[in-house]
Design goal:
Low-confidence stretches: none
Number of domains: 1
Oligomer: single chain
Number of strands: 0
Mean pLDDT: 95
CATH class: Mainly Alpha
CATH topology: Four Helix Bundle (Hemerythrin (Met), subunit A)
Distance between the termini: 38 Å
Strand content: under 5%
Helix content: over 70%
Length: about 180
């Protein structure tokens, strides 16, 4: 068990605490925990790269922790009425589609190796930024104004584009 893996496990353990904070209307706390999770993601990545601490477990655990945090936050924000439900549905549906495609490929003895696409990296950055913005606005009581609509459109569009790109790549893989 490497230090980056321990940090990643701690980030995974933060997920229910962040959800609890949102559900308990402790949105400032949720914001700071979300920031802590983001910092921990950067730190574990830095340590793994700079000190050669990459592990096979970490290769699976890190994206799992990231997805668990993002999906949980979007669902919690939706349940609390801080974002429209369609946004949470889109975020969850995209990840379920990707996981389902990977599982189906394995079952059909055509395993696919998912590499992060540029659109997916941009999508993840925008999803993180929007979630942080929503948490900050609600935790520190400042109005978002038009930023809310811009964020919703950006997250919705990029989530759809990312899902379509992965679906196209998976379809090409399965057809080859």
């Amino acid at each position: 068990m490497s230090l980056p893996n321990i940090i990643t496990l701690c980030r995974l353990l933060l997920v229910p605490v962040v959800v609890w904070a949102i559900a308990s209307e402790e949105v400032q706390l949720a914001f700071w925990l979300f920031v802590l999770a983001g910092v921990s993601d950067a730190v574990d990545g830095f340590l793994a790269k700079q000190f050669g601490m990459h592990t096979e477990l970490g290769a699976y655990l890190d994206p799992l922790a990231d997805k668990a945090l993002l999906i949980s936050i979007y669902v919690a924000l939706s349940v609390e009425g801080l974002i429209p439900r369609w946004v949470a549905i889109a975020v969850v549906a995209r990840d379920v589609m990707i996981i389902g495609a990977v599982m189906l490929s394995a079952v059909l003895a055509r395993p696919v190796h998912i590499k992060p696409l540029v659109v997916s990296k941009v999508n993840t950055m925008v999803q993180i930024a929007f979630a942080a913005l929503i948490l900050a606005a609600n935790g520190f009581d400042f109005p978002l104004g038009p930023l809310m609509q811009v964020g919703l459109i950006a997250v919705g569009l990029l989530t759809a584009l990312s899902a379509a790109a992965y679906l196209a790549a998976w379809t090409r893989h399965m057809a080859s």
